[in-house]
Design brief:
The complex is a heterodimer of chains A (103) and B (457).
Chain A lengths: L2 H4 L2 E6 L4 E7 L3 H10 L4 H8 L7 E5 L4 E7 L30
Antiparallel strand pairs in A: 1-2, 2-4, 3-4
Chain B lengths: L4 E5 L10 H8 L5 E7 L5 H6 L6 H14 L6 E8 L3 H17 L4 E7 L4 H9 L3 E3 L8 H5 L1 E6 L3 H8 L5 E4 L4 H11 L4 H11 L13 E6 L4 E6 L7 H7 L9 E4 L2 E4 L4 E4 L5 E4 L2 E4 L5 E19 L2 H4 L2 H20 L9 E7 L19 E9 L2 H17 L13 E2 L5 E12 L1 E3 L9 E7 L1
Parallel strand pairs in B: 1-2, 2-3, 3-7, 4-7
Antiparallel strand pairs in B: 1-8, 4-21, 5-20, 6-15, 8-9, 9-13, 10-11, 11-14, 12-13, 15-17, 15-18, 15-19, 15-20, 16-17
Classes of the chains: A alpha+beta (103), B alpha+beta (457).
């Protein structure tokens, strides 16, 4: 299955004008634990999927929120004339297609 | 034993719309104070630069009128980050609306106004002393860039709010302010542990966004010596331990450590339990005081004026060589500009930015699917220049190349750009850039935030 088939919400958003943060959130603890064990969500796989340097990433596993989270620098500051996502809200789409082993 | 402290968050932001039935239900619980932020840096550099926020005056009036007429005197109201950006013109615009409401309803109100603008010259002096320090991913900053700032605000923590509350005011109107501080200030004054007070503020400051599903309503909190209860009020609203824990991820780079001016909120050991069907009990957050205060700075510099053309491309011959076609169009525009405007515009004075919707506009260089040919492309062709007149002229010079730039597949004159508007260009007006992502380390005796007390009515 795809990651978007088993998540409650995958989102991206500015964390201040110079950083972008991604949340991968689950509503079912068993599925969250399954994905966590599967090892498909790691700093390396996230960096490859989004296209950023893993050394610039902060990565978090948030058990009490049933979520994974990572934060990276924005390519351009929010509001720069060359930037086209002021709130950073539409940067998560490539994460949706990540393959997750079946339960 | 400390008595409990109760509070209401009226909505996620002043101007976003208070839900009156839910707010009245919250007020029935007799809160010790009511608070709401009115701004966010997420709205972009424009609002700080231009001096006006993102909400319509009518929307701000709607919410402020409810706050001023529904909250009984003796229950202080705290509004922070006035009018989106929290600069002086933003505080003044909010104050004008408050003045109108007070006069319309024949009210009498004592108001503390706390301003948060920082003079660029004063900040240059702090920079020279090494007291301006970059945060993660901060842009390069130097003396000149600080001096070029259109406007700079500092983000206040609880201390200026507490000083204002001690003046026995009905309303605290603050410039740029930590959202959580609006909710932490009074509980800390009443002896609630700092970790719990800041954590509760963090949870409720976006209003009902902390609930399981987003809906209209207000948030109510009650804080005790060692725990707090967070309750949403509004039809169908429910907080769960997961929804509350998840909210700490939202718009934060780090889900556990939240830096404030006087220290860091650490919620890595926080506990969340279902207290009743809709409420969550919170405990376990810690507050780690900083060695010295640091004030987050937000600043913008003027970047120019923009004009833009929007149109579509449907010709498969153009689409299959789109990058080359676009590069040639831009070259032609640059040549025309050099020829016709060269005496007033050097190449460094202006720029073209293009956003190719359908191809890679949204994700830019991070788009993994930009090699897939779309059947049409929406193109925003943006020209930036030092004046609006020059930006318009550049847009006018761009129209012909966009329309008629030839491709080898077709002989004869083509029209390769479907203009959305007539006239073809749209004036975008001025724009600003964020110029800093730093903190100011004030001197021990330095007053950064300036307060006045006014009485209306």
């Amino acid at each position: 299955m795809k990651l978007s088939d088993c998540t409650a919400l995958i989102r991206s958003k500015n964390a201040g004008p110079f950083s972008l943060t991604f949340d991968i959130m689950f509503s079912d603890e068993a599925i969250y634990q399954h994905v966590k064990r599967s090892g498909v969500i790691t700093p390396q796989t996230m960096a490859e999927t989004i296209g950023c340097d893993v050394n610039e990433m902060k990565f978090f596993v948030c058990d009490n929120a049933l979520a994974f989270k990572f934060t990276i620098p924005r390519l351009l500051p929010a509001g720069d004339p060359a930037d086209a996502d002021l709130h950073g809200g539409q940067q998560f789409a490539p994460l949706m297609d990540i393959a997750v082993p079946d339960l | 034993m400390t008595e409990s402290v109760k509070f209401v968050c009226s909505s996620g932001a002043v101007g976003s719309g208070i839900n009156l039935p839910a707010f009245r239900a919250a007020m029935m619980r007799q809160p010790d104070f009511v608070a709401s932020d009115a701004g966010t840096i997420d709205a972009g550099p424009y609002h700080l630069g231009v001096g006006k926020g993102a909400y319509a005056t009518e929307a701000m009036r709607h919410d402020l009128e409810i706050l001023l007429t529904e909250v009984p005197r003796g229950t202080p109201i705290l509004v922070g980050s006035a009018d989106t950006a929290g600069g002086d013109p933003h505080v003044d615009r909010t104050l004008d609306i408050i003045r109108d409401i007070v006069s319309k309803h024949g009210l009498k109100r004592r108001i503390a106004v706390i301003r948060s603008e920082i003079d660029p010259c004063a900040l240059q002096a702090a920079y020279d002393d090494g007291r301006v320090v970059p945060l993660d991913h901060a842009p390069p900053l130097d003396r000149d860039r600080i001096g070029r700032s259109t406007r700079i605000v500092g983000m206040m923590g609880v201390e200026p709010l507490q000083d204002a509350l001690r003046e026995d005011v009905d309303l605290v109107l603050a410039g740029r302010c930590s959202d959580s501080a609006l909710f932490a200030a009074l509980p800390i004054m009443r002896g609630i542990p700092e970790g719990l007070a800041w954590h509760a503020g963090k949870i409720v400051e976006c209003g009902t966004l902390t609930c399981e599903t987003y809906g209209k309503g207000a948030m109510f909190g009650e804080l005790f010596a060692d725990h707090g209860i967070i309750t949403p009020l509004g039809e169908g609203l429910r907080c769960t331990p997961q929804s509350v824990a998840s909210h700490s991820l939202y718009e934060n780079g780090d889900p556990y450590l939240h830096r404030e001016s006087s220290g860091t909120l650490d919620i890595s050991e926080a506990h969340f339990e279902q207290y009743d069907p809709v409420s969550v009990r919170i405990s376990g957050a810690r507050y780690i005081p900083a060695d010295r205060p640091s004030i987050k700075l937000e600043g913008v510099e003027f970047a120019g004026y923009q004009s833009m053309l929007i149109g579509g491309i449907r010709d498969p011959f153009i689409i299959r060589q789109f990058d080359k076609w676009l590069a040639e169009v831009k070259d032609e525009v640059r040549q025309r500009a050099a020829r016709l405007l060269g005496d007033v515009l050097s190449p460094d004075d202006w720029r073209i930015d293009t956003h190719s919707y359908g191809l890679n506009a949204v994700m830019g260089a991070r788009e993994p699917r930009s090699a897939e040919p779309p059947h049409e492309i929406g193109l925003a062709f943006c020209l930036s220049a030092p004046t609006q007149e020059l930006a318009n002229k550049l847009a006018e010079l761009s129209r012909q190349p966009l329309l008629h730039h030839p491709i080898p597949e077709w002989s004869g004159s083509i029209t390769g750009f479907a203009c959305l508007f007539n006239q073809a260009h749209v004036e975008r007006g001025p724009y600003w850039r964020f110029s800093m992502h730093h903190v100011l380390l004030p001197k021990p005796d330095e007053t950064v935030f300036h307060r006045e007390i006014i009485t209306l009515g």
